[in-house]
Predict the structure.
Amino acid sequence: MACPHTAPPPCVSRAWALRSCGPVSISTLIQFFFKAMCGEGSDEADGGSGNEGRLSAQQVGSIVSSRAQEIAATSQHYSDLQQTIVLRALASLEQQRMALQGRLTEVEAEQAKARERVKEATGRLQDIKKERQKVEEEMRSLGVKDNASRR
């Protein structure tokens, strides 16, 4: 059933018409909203001046400006939060990078020590081989046969 107050009679206030109609279509609400903002229609028959329940252009401008400021403040707040999150993530990544760089330096130092130990061991091995050759030569000169030739 259609609402009998889609256009309220002049003697009935718009607010009462909206309350008494039950569910009101969105288009009707939008129509009443714009009529109230723009001051169209007449409520003079109910003893009013015709401007009751209506917003002046200054009030509408004030509401729009206030809402725009709220939206801008909220947007700035979220932008600040996003920037804070990004900065914290960057700080965390920088800490991780520094820790990994420190560990890499430690590993490189250990690697250098290991290379030095390998060089020392290689040198000792060469010395041992030379010493073995000398001992084998002395044994041959004395006429002692090595273990491989005795078998």
Q: What stands out?
A: Residues 1-55 form one domain. The chain is about 75% helix and 0% strand.
